[in-house]
């Protein structure tokens, strides 16, 4: 009987099969099946019905608002993320670990609480409520509130991606650049930016996916005004509660599609740029 | 460019890195800053470079007070320990960087830059590798690129932080000669930091020895090796047997070891004796039992123990010794010794 000798540190075949099976079952049950069912339900009454559901005025408004929110939250994140990681990686200051913990806060706080915080601060009964009312500025139950809530839940993404990257790269290259007479701005564009671009892009993609998909925090501050303050995830919920399953699943399928596109982009990036290793979250 | 460092102090938090360091570096000199880790040698180099500002004291470039001028204003060429090459730029772009970032009338034309890059790559013997990226080079080649990049701006002073630290022994040796050659070819004042005494003694015109943020001695390699100014230098530079004892009436005594104390005052003292200053003697002297004998090229190295259990190392010319085996008891007289108050 011939037997292939296995490597001393290699697991036996049955163990490998078991581990892979556990992963496969979980992926299938928790991820793939629901994803497929979303598309299946969306197309239950055919493609035209699904397209019609996406094309209604309210749905279009929700899509627009979602894209607008992402378009504001993501650039904000990029600026904040670069500043925060630059500060952490290149400067020495007290309370640095505290700052890093603070950046992680949105990951540990429930999004609903995040939404409530803004209602408490900017709502009609909140700290700045009366002042905002006097000046006719609407934040809660309006677009600014949705953007604020989205920024809150997404702001760790870029920073978490860049901090380890920048810490690992240190300040030598920047010092070399400055010592050769380059200005601070020139150093940033010629030296720092190219070194962090892949990590940055990765963070942006993750941030974008979350910005478009956020439900909890946005739900609290939105007020669910159709055509005005409904983002795509909120619109899905409304349609579902109205038993418009095709509509709900059609919009949900669109959201899934955007998420998949984001992840495919991310994977492609990792393939073309071997150094862009996944880190952080 | 002559560089003059005057009573420079620098503290990081509560930890003093430099305690009143003064040092003069002559124009065109190749100087080594030698010391153990934590001695402040890298901090001193960064203060000279303008990458770190001192808390007290001054740094002069020629007659100009540059204490608080940035690195660019001092026109330094700095070679970092890990080279700090720009990883997304080609070798040629890396070398050209210092010229590319110039503005206004001093900005050289593209052709001038290309010529200068070619010239520098030839100088460091990397011609033809301009289109490679740093990741495609060996450690020694990266070091040469870093050197070429630092020289591109015609620096007033070339500063190198542990330039050979990240290289293996063979590359290290050949690059050492290379640095000497480049220094002689360009004539630029050069200061390098090292913890490797062999490197410092072989390469430098003068060596400044640092310990705990202060300069212990500055001198030629021969001076610091043969005329150590204090116990630290005597123990740090070159090999030495160390004896702890006492000076009384001009004689140093440590167990069976007895020798002239030179000018050392009475009281507790340490004596250093280089292995080659222990001489074989037929009659009397210090009685030592050989523990281990190892021929090493033209010399024989001996590990032995004195009667009171003190380990000693000695080195003899091969011809002077016949049939020395472990276990043999031999007599040693002490040639030159350095005695310092403890």
Your description of this structure?
The complex is a heterodimer of chains A (281) and B (342). Chain A is mainly α and 281 residues long. Chain A contains 13 helices and no strands. Chain B is of the alpha+beta class and 342 residues long. In chain B, 25% of the residues lie in helices and 36% in strands. Chain B has 9 helices and 20 strands. Chain B has helices spanning 41-49, 71-74, 91-100, 110-123, 139-151, 169-186, 197-203, 221-226, 231-236, and strands spanning 3-12, 15-25, 30-34, 56-61, 64-65, 76-79, 157-161, 189-194, 206-211, 214-219, 241-248, 251-254, 257-260, 267-273, 278-281, 286-296, 299-306, 311-317, 329-334, 338-341. In chain B, the strands form 4 sheets. Chain B has a 6-stranded mixed β-sheet with strand order 6-7-8-3-9-10, sandwiched between helices. A 5-stranded antiparallel β-sheet of chain B has the order 13-12-11-14-20. A 5-stranded antiparallel β-sheet of chain B has the order 15-19-16-17-18, with no helix packed on it. In chain B, helix 6 links the parallel strand 7 (157-161) and strand 8 (189-194). In chain B, helix 3 runs parallel beside helix 5 (139-151) and helix 4 crosses helix 5. The longest helix of chain B is centred in the middle third of the chain and has 18 residues, at 169-186. The relative contact order of chain B is 0.12. The mean pLDDT of chain B is 91. The A-B interface holds A 172-173, 175-183, 186, 190-191, 194-195 and B 49-51, 70-72, 75-78, 80-82, 84-88, 97-98, 101-102, 149, 152-153.
